[in-house]
Amino acid sequence: MCGIAGIVDFSSPVISSQIGKIAKTIVHRGPDSGGSFVKNHVGLGIRRLKIIDLKTGDQPISNEDGSLTVVFNGEIYNYKLIREQLIKNGHKLKTTSDTETLVHLYEDSGKDFLQKLNGMFTFALWDEKKQSLLLARDHAGIKPLFYHHKGSKLIFGSEIKTILSVIQTPKIDPDSLFLYTFLGYVPTPRTIYQDIFQLPPGSTLTFSQSGLKIHQYYDLFSQPNPEPADLDSMLDTVVSRQAIADVPVGLLLSGGLDSSILAYYLTRQKHEVKSFSISFAHQDFNEGSHAAQVAKILGTRHFDQPYSASDLLTDFPVIQKLMDQPFADPSLFPTYHVCRLASSHVKVALSGDGGDEVFAGYPTYLGHRFANLLPWFPSSFKSLLVNLAQNIPAVKFPLFSSSYKFGDTLANFFSGLGLPVLHRQLQWMVFFTTGQIAPEALFKTSPIKELFSLPYPQDQVKTAQLLDFQTYLRDAMLLKSDRASMFNGLEVRVPYLDREIISFAFSQTSPFTSLFSTKLPLRNLLKGKLPENIRNRPKKGFGLPLSDWISGPLKTIVSDYVYRRDISDAFPRVFVDAAWSQNHLRTLWMVFAFSVWQEQWAKGRI
Predict the structure, then answer these.
(1) Are 181 and 327 in contact (CB under 8 A)?
(2) Mean pLDDT throughout 198-214?
(3) Is 250 annotated as a binding residue?
C-alpha cells in the first residue's frame, strides 16, 4: 500500500520541489520509501509501504523504453498470472512487483487492460508519446483518489491534503455540507471543498492538452453472470490470493460472522495467524470475548487491547491533524486503535468490511422484508402503524446500544415503511449515522439524485444492498478503513470486495435474508465449521458507548467544540441545544466531528 500524488501543468514546467512537497504530506501512507518522476509538464510522486517485492519494487516504474511511467497505490491480486502472460508476449520485466505489470499491460491493451485487473488500487500512468495522464481507481472504491482541475493544470493525490499543499484552501461546498449534515460523510464524487473532487470507483480520468475526460470502466449493475461456483471454494481461493505478501499478514477479528469466516479460511492456509481486536468495559459494546472465542477455536495468536474514553482523548490530536475531510462515524477512533495494535505485529491485515453490503447483513434489510408484507394488511393497520410512530415518546429505554432510544428507533422504522425502497433505506441509514430524519431535499441533491435513477432490480433487499454499496460502504466504511490503517502504516485488505465475490453475490436469485435472519449464504456455509453461537450471531456493529462517554469523560471536549463560534453559521446554537436536550448523540457527534475538522483544516471558510 502506498500514497500517490502528482501535477500535470501544460502551461508551465513542473518543479521537482513541488512533487517532494505534496508527497511529504502523505508520508504516513508509505513510510518505507519515496520516489518521484519529473519531466517537463508532469510530476509524479510516491510514498511506499513495502508489501510485494521488497528489494526491487520501488517506484516510479517505467516500461522498457521509458515512454510509460506509473505510480501505484494498492495490490493486484492476480498479478502473477498477468506477469506470466506478459513474459510470454515478449516483455522484459525487471522487477517481481505487481506495479510493473501495469505499464506493460497498457502497452498491449491500452485502457482496456483495467478489465483484467482484480485488486484494490489507484494509479497514475504518464504516457510520454501521447502527452497524456491516466488516473484509475478500483472497481469498489477501496482506495481513494482526489483531484483538482483548473484550465491546463491537474493536481491529484491519495488524500485531499496533497492538493491543499499546492492551492489556496477552497471554500466549503454548501451542498456537500448539507449532505454531510445528514449522512455523516460526503458522498463521491463530491468532497467538502468546492473544486476538489473524488474520482468515482471503477473509473478512469484522462488528462491531456485536449482536456479532461472521465470514463466508467466498471458497472456494478452490469455484472457478467459468473460460472457456477461453490461459495466455499470461492472464499477459500479469494482469501488465499489476498493473503499473498512478502511481509507478515494478520486479521482484524471482531468475532462477528464476517471476520470469523475469514479467520477460518486464513488459518487453513497459514501455520500461524495473528489476529487483533479491541474490547470495551461497557458490555453492550464489547465484542472482545467473541473474538477471543473464535481465536481459541481456530488457533490464532490473538492480541486484544481495551479501549476507553481516555484512549480516544489520546488519539484525538493525531486524527484531527490527519483527517482532511469531516467524518462523523465515531468508530473511526477504535478502528484507528486496532490498526495501530495490528501494525506493531504485521504490515498487512484482512478485514471483513463489505460483507454486510455484499451478503445482506444489516438489520435494515429485514425491514424491507417486513415492508413487503404491508400490502397484505388492511389500510387501517398501516394507519395504526403511522399513528404509533408519531406518538411514541422520544425518550424511552435503550435498544441494543445506549446511542439510540427505542422510541426514536421504532418511530424512524415505522415512518420509513410507507416510502419507496430507496427513500426508505436512505432514511433508515441517515438515522443510524447521524440520528436525524432525512428531508426530501436530500433525495434531490446530487449525487443522491443520480443514484436514485439507476436501474435497480425488483428485489427490494438487493436494491438496498446496491444503494449501500454506492454510499455508506465506499464513502464511510472504506474511507474509515483506509484512513485508520494508513495513518498507522498498515495495509488492510477486504476479501468480500473481490471482483469475483461481488459478481457472484449480485448475480444470485435466491434471497440472502428471511424475515428474521440475514446473510443466509454465509450462515449456511459455516455449518459444521464453527459453533452455532458464532454462526447465528446477530449483527452488532462497531460502536462506542457514546451516552456514557459524552455525559462523562468526553462532555467537556464535545461541548467546547459543538459550541465553537466559528461553526455557528453552519450549526446554530439552537440546533445544538436541541440535540443536547433530546439526547441525540449521533447528531452531536456529527457537529463535533465537523468542528474538529474545521478548526484544523478550514478556519474562516464557512
Answers:
(1) no
(2) 98
(3) no
